[in-house]
Amino acid sequence: MRGTTVRRNSAAWQAWLWLIGAGFAVLLVGIVFGLQKTGPLCGSPLIPDSRAAEAFDALHRGAEAAAACYRAIGAAAVPTWILIALAVVLVLAGVTVRIVLISRSAARGPEARGPEARGPEARGPEARGPEARGTGGGSLR
Question: Is there a domain that residue 2 lies in?
Answer without folding.
Answer: no
